[in-house]
Design a protein that fits this description.
By secondary structure, this protein is an alpha/beta fold. The chain has a single domain, classed as Alpha-Beta Barrel (TIM Barrel). 45% of the residues lie in helices and 14% in strands. It has a four-stranded mixed sheet with strand order 7-1-8-9, covered by helices on one side. Strands 2-3-4 form a three-stranded parallel sheet, with helices on one face. A two-stranded parallel ribbon has the order 5-6. It binds iron/sulfur cluster. Iron/sulfur cluster binds next to loops. The site of iron/sulfur cluster (SF4) has 11 residues, from loops.
Length: 335
């Protein structure tokens, strides 16, 4: 911990080391995935203080609407659909299975990246099932991987203040490690730039590193700056600066090296130009084309909802890197 805090006092040295480690880990290739987000509902029983998405429009997509979004994604050439939503009161496992079946009715092949650890906990609890039983059923119904969202900051003193209804740190770790053991890979995320300190961020990164040592189930790490608009927390904190966002990306690369190869710069949260800079301080992935992005937009992100594949390629090339389309599991698909 102390060595990292010491290093952060020299930001440009931190950037330099992170860039060198990025080169060692993955070279000059920068990847992206062609995907579509499907947020099936914004109705949610939780009241996370940073959330600008829940209960605004009170929409709930029908299975036919989900199918038509998946069909559009397949027609566009998406290799992944990322499916998440609010926590519908009393939603049981069968509701989530019906979503997976709807996707599989449209495509057997598309990679289904779905349901956060919080959603898994919610469906398991409402169905009287264990986490393991729930994840097994989801996998049988076609779940390929999970977003490692709902991590926020993995420290219960922070979680109690910003998302008191959410799963605890140990529950997040349990759900993620159970998924990994069942052969369901996940991403790992961290939402920073609110009430947490550098110590909390480093602790979070060390937890992620430790899980990866044990399971090897994380595909990437995604640092997500807190978006300050239209939520309660944004009224009392200022949010991180662009410079701080870069430092978080750099220290993520340094701490997670060599366990986690892929550090993502989220163009939705950072904006395209800062994401390009992030590629020079440790990041090697730009995330997805997305097609629609409701959650960050609600919280004030202004970078749009969709980056076509050609635009992704242009952005990476103009940052001096080699663009490659990947699938969700980081297999390279095309030059
Ligand atoms: S972050 Fe997720 S769980 Fe929390 S209120 Fe928003 S939709 Fe609900």
């Amino acid at each position: 911990m102390l060595e990292y805090l010491e290093l952060l006092k020299d930001p440009f040295e931190t950037f330099k080391i992170a860039d060198e480690l990025r080169e060692k880990a993955v070279g000059d290739v920068v990847t992206f995935v062609v995907n579509r987000n499907v947020n099936f509902t914004d109705i949610c029983v939780n009241r996370c203080k940073f959330c600008a998405f829940s209960n605004r429009k009170k929409f709930l997509l029908t299975l036919d609407e989900i199918k038509s979004k998946v069909r559009e994604a397949v027609e566009y050439g998406c290799t992944e659909v990322c499916i998440q939503g609010g926590l519908l009161p009393n939603a049981k496992l069968d509701f989530y299975i019906s979503i997976l079946e709807a996707v599989r009715d449209v495509s057997e092949d598309i990679h289904v990246h779905a349901f956060s650890p919080m959603e898994v906990y919610h469906m398991a609890k409402n169905s009287g099932l264990s986490i393991k039983e729930t994840l097994n059923e989801l996998k049988k119904a076609g779940l390929d991987s999970m977003p490692g969202t709902a991590a926020e900051i993995l420290d219960d003193s922070i979680r109690k203040q910003i998302c008191p209804d959410k799963i605890t740190t140990s529950q997040w770790i349990e759900i993620i490690t159970t998924a990994h053991k069942l052969g369901i890979p996940t991403t790992a995320t961290m939402m920073f730039g609110h009430i947490e300190s550098w110590e909390h961020r480093i602790k979070h990164l060390l937890i992620v590193k430790e899980i990866q040592r044990k399971t090897g189930g994380f595909t990437e790490f995604i640092p997500l700056p807190f978006m300050t608009k239209n939520n309660e927390l944004g009224k009392i904190v200022k949010g991180s600066s662009g410079f701080e966002d870069l430092l978080v990306i750099a220290i993520s690369r340094i701490i997670l090296y060599p366990e986690i190869k892929n550090i993502q710069a989220s163009w939705v949260k950072l904006g395209v130009k800062l994401a390009q800079v992030a590629l020079h301080v440790g990041a090697n992935d730009l995330g997805g084309t997305l097609m629609e992005e409701n959650i960050s937009k609600a919280a004030g992100a202004t970078s749009g909802e969709f980056l076509p594949k050609e635009e992704m390629i242009r952005i990476i090339e103009s940052a001096g890197r080699i663009p490659k389309q990947r699938d969700t599991l980081y297999n390279i698909l095309s030059p």
